[in-house]
Amino acid sequence: MSDANALEALIQALRRLPGVGVKSAQRMAFHLLQHDRPGAQTLSYALANAAQAIQHCERCHTFTEATVCATCLDERRDASKLCVVETPADQSALERTGAYKGLYFVLMGKLSPLDGVGPHDIGLKKLFDRALDGTVQEVILATNFTAEGEATAHVISEGLKARGLHLTRLARGVPVGSELEYVDLGTIAHALVDRR
Ligand SMILES: [Zn+2]
Hints:
The structure is a single chain. It is built from eight helices and six strands. By secondary structure, it is an alpha/beta fold. The strands form two sheets. The chain has a four-stranded parallel beta sheet with strand order 4-3-5-6. A hairpin with a 6-residue loop joins strand 1 (55-56) and strand 2 (63-64). The radius of gyration is 20 Å and the shape is elongated.
């Protein structure tokens, strides 16, 4: 591979990142090569290592280096409650409130028919199996208050409501259209306590 090809390959690789167009990719590549070679090595190692080591938790589907994540293994947690969130970032937002002591299921996405994301892509079958393990009594739908998040919550509640589980949704108060990740902790804590 010639030098020009190595540079072009780096730019193309950077363009895989969400929101990064060709100009930004060039800027990042030039920055790393011109000003931060150690940073380039660190980034390269971290990416290769993460891509190799990180998998999905067998029980909640979040990212972990173990077969089952530390949260799922924590016996002090209330296994009768299962909170469904879209992303690990949303899970972190709920955790930071300190108001929730149950377990989680992380969809790693949301239903989005226009983008071709269907029930299979967000592991709904796995969620239903998890929710019907006999221990879970309440499923808390904590998907985002966006159109897609609401649609996802609706499909999950349709799938589970005939199965004897108590289904709740985070209370309003979390602004319509918002993603949990960006909502302040007090608001999320209230939405959890007031869920219905
Ligand atoms: Zn887990």
